[in-house]
Amino acid sequence: MKSSGLKRVDILTLFPGMFEGPLSQSLLGRARDRGLIDLRIRNLRDFSADDRHKTVDDRPYGGGAGMVLQPEPIFRAIKAIRASVSKDLLKNSKPYVIYLSPQGRVLNQKISLELAQRPWITLICGHYEGVDERIMDLVDEEVSIGDYVLTGGELPAMVLAEAIIRLVPGVVQQAESIANDSFQQGLLDHPHYTRPALWRGKKVPEVLLSGDHKKIRDWRTQQARGMTSKKRPDLLTTNSRRRI
């Protein structure tokens, strides 16, 4: 029987301590504790050349500023990750390897949904001037979180991990919450209100207090379109083109 849906994420990084808080708290931490996702943080220096300094980088050929991550430690790490198939994955499974890079596809909800269908993902966090280009043969895809540059791939990896793991069934307890997310249907989310019904002279819209579920659904759809038109009209143009 073929495995479907995200089950495991490995993150290869020079700074594993950066992940302790973000990936052990909130929904992601609970998802790990409940066994909904197998999330493993790998220290790249554990796969370094056999020297006491655990070297993983060197000066770039041709000169220039900065350092470049060497190919051998990354190769060893990916080989070790591939060999460590967990009980939730088929023996012939192999991870879909993603390098977090400013040169990759810019992350959006469509990409998150696509990646969440892959059973096993490995994220490589670049650093310094990046990775030796010869290792890119082992990379299935590059993903960026925006057209700007950070000091390393750790924060982008956290963003990508959050975006895809929250889509795993059971991580967010109310599936409807995900279905109504911004960008999920090509629109921004509708406005939300909670108690009290009157706050500092401002009232909750009457329709939300009516108990009429059809009217509430219609209002939310109308509001979502209005919010999208006001804040992100480009989304309406893009969705219109897709339907042509």
Q: End-to-end span in angstroms?
A: 38 Å
Using only CA atoms, what is the Rg? 22 Å
Pattern of helices and strands: EHEEEHEHEEHHEEHH
- Structural class, by secondary structure, is alpha/beta
Q: So what's the overall shape?
A: elongated
Uncertain residue ranges: none
Sheet with most strands: 5 strands, parallel
Q: State mean pLDDT (0 to 100 scale).
A: 89
Which percent band covers the strand fraction?
15-25%
Strand order of the largest sheet: 2-1-6-5-7
Task: State the helicity in percent bands.
Answer: 25-40%
Number of strands: 9
Q: How many alpha or pi helices? A: 7
Structure report:
The protein has helices at 26-33, 71-83, 109-115, 154-165, 175-179, 213-231, 233-243; strands spanning 8-13, 38-43, 57-58, 68-69, 96-106, 120-125, 141-144, 198-199, 202-203. The chain has 244 residues and is an alpha/beta fold. Strands 2-1-6-5-7 form a 5-stranded parallel sheet. The mean pLDDT is 89.
Topology record:
Elements: E1 8-13, H1 26-33, E2 38-43, E3 57-58, E4 68-69, H2 71-83, E5 96-106, H3 109-115, E6 120-125, E7 141-144, H4 154-165, H5 175-179, E8 198-199, E9 202-203, H6 213-231, H7 233-243
Parallel strand pairs: 1-2, 1-6, 5-6, 5-7
Antiparallel strand pairs: 3-4, 8-9
